[in-house]
Specification:
The chain is of the alpha+beta class. 28% of the residues lie in helices and 27% in strands. The C terminus is likely disordered.
Length: 674
């Protein structure tokens, strides 16, 4: 049985979401948040069971009431609802949704409309700041039709003027919360500013990009995203916001030169994905940093006056007028104004599902004498690669469950052997764990003698997931398909260079098996991990690679790499036009990369059991499932026994492959066949 509440769905600026009067929602913050989760359909990444759009831009809610603040007409509470997880965050603000507040309130009778235009003073509850909103009300009725155009929205509409009166320092209490206009974090200069929205602004060039890339290209740059997030976490602490790992503020922003002295180019992140256009509140912060001297975004000194500035973003531009008072180090921005538009999409009753009001208690991990200190997950590959990314996703969720911080330590080298030996010889108290995978626990041990035993030196904790292996090529390698590549290699051996992540790794095995089964030969460039290997393939220094889909997917999406085939038993649902290597006429190259969490041998069974239950809780989290699947991996939880069986069967399989294929020295091949 569903509960029904009134609702108005609006497009406001470049966002969209439901608008509610406060009295339409249940009393109490907890019941209110559950109603919002049900309204948006937050539990599902696609938000099929609600009015969300499967994106943070369409998972926004505005809650409006008559204001309790002196001199203000309306109170506006903004809520950012989760995408694929049940969460409601009322810490940030949204200037786009703000543009729909006054029209909504006038139509609901909270504010009397004037003939012509109506000015409404809105109090933003999130940031405790005031905004004057001017709405066109021809004949005393809200008019949505007009000739104003904003980038990122089709067509035209009536202009809505937003004049931010005191948004500076609204969240942290200071425009520059760290006390400085430029701070240095890990060698990178940043400006931490609180102007309508707490931001961490970085010069794009300082992170090796131009700042004019399309959002898809920036989203595909996993190393950049991880670097930005690391900087953001430190900036959050410096700004007095505490641990912001589970918060959307501060927002990271990359800036670069604009097209004129009065414009600046911005790439705004939300925070782990580049905005397809730009947030209004973020534009005010960027424009303020641009107008004021001494920041990483500063332009030429500006005299005290009203200045028209332009923030360029991927979908166009936002025009912002800022009022500067004072000069030099004393210069401040006293107010900022910009134009938005809004449109009412529908009004009626919203039916809420019962399940959001009947949540079972979250499961808890039975406490034992573990953990008693920081936990480290050692990753055997370079930072920024697929293994490292997956480990960090898990670590962020595992820490709160175990009650200790979980650190990810990338120890690349010797094709995973350095990390494996380190964990194998660590204390058996499970404060040092390993994010192992097919390379460290099957392929490399099958290929060569190592300083660790993949079976006897580890206690399996549990499976994590898997990802299919792809055969990808740089677009400049002008071959239509696998058959054309094979023909070229037979005509001109070693005319194509393939990137290996190191001997005994899945990209190396897959490439060698491809050559063995096609009778061809490619040149080999070996790298210390998949991250630098795929980076050079994207840059065209190598032409072919066999990465996991998790590693390759961002570059396939952006068009920087082209998928030639799937090195697996079947085609992929998301890439139906890409054949398997078997379908392309190449048999014997089936490599599915799997991942698991391991502890040193001798770890107490009770601790292994606790870790396994915590790990499986993490892997059941919709947000984790979404992040894995959005990057081309599948979550596969299980028991320690299941992971032990996986290691045993995979090790035996790859020992047989090595023996029959000739990849290992002769004496090792003979030993493997005995």
């Amino acid at each position: 049985m569903s509960q029904s509440i009134p609702c108005v769905l609006m497009r406001a600026g470049t966002s969209r979401g439901p608008f509610f009067l406060r009295e339409w929602l249940p009393e109490g913050d907890e019941a209110r948040d559950q109603a919002l989760i049900g309204a948006i359909g937050a539990s599902d990444p696609l938000q099929l069971d609600g009015v969300g759009g499967g994106s943070t831009l369409n998972s926004k809610v505005a809650i409006v009431s008559r204001s309790k603040e002196p001199g203000c007409d309306l109170d506006y509470l903004f809520a950012q609802v989760g995408v694929g997880h049940r969460s409601v965050d009322t810490r940030p603000n949204c200037g786009n949704m703000l543009s729909g507040v006054a029209p909504f309130a006038i139509e609901q009778g909270l504010v009397a409309a004037q003939d012509g235009i109506t000015q409404v003073r809105v109090f933003n509850v999130n940031t405790r700041s005031r905004i004057d909103v001017t709405v066109r009300t021809t004949g005393g009725r809200v008019t949505y039709e007009g000739d104003a155009r904003i980038d990122g929205v089709a067509g035209t509409a009536a202009p809505i003027l937003l004049n931010f009166l005191d948004a500076w320092g609204a969240v942290t209490g200071q425009v520059f919360p760290t006390g400085q206009r430029i701070d240095t974090i890990d060698g990178i200069e940043v400006s931490c500013i609180d102007a309508a929205m707490p931001l961490m602004i970085v010069r794009a060039s300082d992170l090796g990009v131009t700042g004019r890339e399309k959002p898809a290209a920036l989203d595909a740059n996993t190393a950049l995203l991880e670097r930005l997030e690391a900087l953001r976490l430190q900036a959050g602490r410096m700004m007095g916001l505490g641990d912001v790992s589970n918060s959307v503020i501060p927002k990271p922003v990359l800036v670069s030169a604009g097209d004129s002295p009065n414009s600046i180019t911005s790439r705004y992140f939300t925070p782990r994905k580049c905005h397809v256009s730009h947030a209004v509140t973020g534009a005010i912060g960027v424009a303020s940093a641009f107008a004021l001297p001494g920041t990483v975004a500063s332009a030429a000194a500006r005299a005290p006056a009203r200045h028209s500035l332009v923030v360029l973003h991927p979908a166009g531009q936002i025009d912002v007028e800022v009022e500067i008072e004072g000069e030099g180090a004393d210069a401040t921005v006293s107010c900022a104004a910009l134009v938005r538009t809004a449109r009412k999409i529908m009004q009626g009753e919203l039916h809420l599902p019962d399940y959001v009001f009947s949540r079972s208690e979250e499961p808890t991990v039975t406490p034992v004498a573990f953990p008693s200190k920081l936990i480290t997950i050692v990753v055997p590959t370079r930072a920024g690669g697929g293994n490292d990314t997956m480990a960090r996703i898990i670590a962020a969720k595992l820490g709160p469950l175990l009650g200790q911080e979980v650190l990810v330590d990338a120890r690349a080298g010797a094709n995973g052997a350095i990390a494996s030996e380190y964990v194998a010889h660590a204390a058996a108290d499970s404060h040092t764990l390993m994010f192992g995978y097919i390379g460290t626990h099957a392929m490399n041990p099958a290929l060569q003698k190592l300083g660790y035993d993949p079976v006897n030196d580890f206690e399996p904790v549990g499976l994590v997931g898997s990802s299919p292996t792809m055969m990808v090529a740089h677009p400049d390698l002008h071959v239509a398909d696998v058959s054309a590549l094979v023909s070229r290699l037979k005509a001109t051996p070693r005319s194509v260079d393939y990137a290996s992540a190191g001997d005994g790794t899945p990209p190396h095995f897959a490439a060698e098996l491809f050559q063995l089964n096609t009778g061809t030969s490619m040149a080999n460039t070996t790298y210390d991990g998949a991250a630098p290997a795929i980076a050079d393939t994207v840059d065209g220094r190598t032409q072919v690679m066999f990465p996991s889909l998790f590693t390759a997917r961002p570059f396939l999406r952006s068009g920087q790499l082209r998928a030639l085939a799937v090195a697996g038993p079947r085609r992929l649902g998301e890439l139906p036009g890409v054949p398997t290597l078997s379908e392309a006429g190449v048999d014997g190259v089936e490599v599915t990369q799997w991942y698991g969490l391991f502890a040193p041998s001798g770890t107490a069974p009770a601790v292994i059991d606790q870790l396994n239950r915590a790990l499986n809780m993490v892997l059941a989290d919709p947000a984790v499932i979404d992040r894995f699947e959005s990057n081309g991996a599948h979550v596969e939880s299980g028991t320690p026994a299941a992971l032990r069986a996986q290691v045993g069967s995979e090790l035996a399989r790859w020992q047989q492959v090595v023996a029959l294929s000739g990849l290992a020295p002769q004496e090792q091949r003979l030993a493997a066949l005995e």
